[in-house]
Amino acid sequence: MSSKVLCGGGVLGTAGSGHAKNTMRPRTDRGAAPVKGKLMKLTALIFALGTTTAVSLAGVTTTVDFEDGLTHGWEGPQGIGGSTYIDNTGGNGGGAGYRTQFNNFGIDFRNNTNSAFIGDFTGFDEVTVSFDLKVDQIGTFLPVSRPFVLEMRSTTLASGGYPWASAYFLFDWYGQDSFDGYTTLSTTFDPNAVALPAGWGGYGAEDPVTFEPMLPDGVTYADIMANVDEMAITTLLPGYFFSFDDYDFTLDNISISTVPAPSALALIGLGGMVGTRRRR
């Protein structure tokens, strides 16, 4: 896993060649209390990162590329249906990738231990999650397409017998004939939004009229983003049921980029000036 400086301020989320765009606008209605929280969270992040990770005014990016033979908290399905493993030559560009070959109703890659991918994201103005995907097979007798979803889960906010409450983003439906080789799926979002942004859905309760999944009563999108204890890349789209199929696909370069609030950027700049003066 490597941590890199995020050099770009784009706010456009894309899936493959232009799918699932999610454009966010800067928020202007934040009060003093949220700003104070952002400063405290970013300060803690800087001290936690130490001197081995570069922190710039643009933000911080953490990428898991599996080249070191470790999954850094990412777990795919294992068991009687098949296995998930690091393929040392199956990644994007010929390096390592995380491959699943499994027979099931759907595939769930999850991370609930790596602090870069879980926690309270409301201390940031923007968050971008991306990964590279190659699909070799979905389907048993005939090829089928399945949804690929980013799901931010919170067991803390679960209620009504649900395993978690979550906000999820549907990139698109893909199968083995959707593209050649690898494609990159990416979305950028404002974790402080109250309502679900365009392209996002909620899980943890059921609409009594439409029977569609929804967030639990009183839980907002920002509430989920403040209490993420598991991030998942999954084909199990809430509200849908799927047949038992063979899956063979590989993930690579699972990445998260966080952009701090303007007030926190000022703190970084001030810290730099103080450091300069102390060295004189």
Task: Write the topology of this structure.
Elements: E1 2-5, E2 12-15, E3 19-23, H1 32-49, E4 60-64, E5 74-75, E6 82-87, E7 97-104, E8 108-111, E9 124-138, E10 146-154, E11 165-174, E12 183-189, E13 200-203, E14 205-206, E15 213-214, H2 221-225, E16 230-234, E17 245-260, H3 262-279
Antiparallel strand pairs: 1-4, 2-3, 4-17, 5-8, 6-7, 7-17, 8-16, 9-12, 9-17, 10-11, 10-16, 11-13, 14-15
Q: How many helical elements?
A: 3
Unreliable spans are 2-36, 38-55, 270-280
Structural class of the secondary structure composition? mainly beta
From the spread of the alpha carbons, the general shape counts as globular
Count the E strands.
Answer: 17
CA distance, first residue to last residue: 36 Å
How are helices and strands ordered from N to C?
Answer: EEEHEEEEEEEEEEEEHEEH
Helix content: 10-25%
Task: Determine the mean pLDDT.
Answer: 82
* Radius of gyration computed on alpha carbons: 19 Å
* Biggest sheet character: 7 strands, antiparallel
User: How much strand content do the residues show?
Assistant: 35-45%
Give me a quick take on this structure.
The longest helix is centred in the N-terminal third of the chain and has 18 residues, at 32-49.
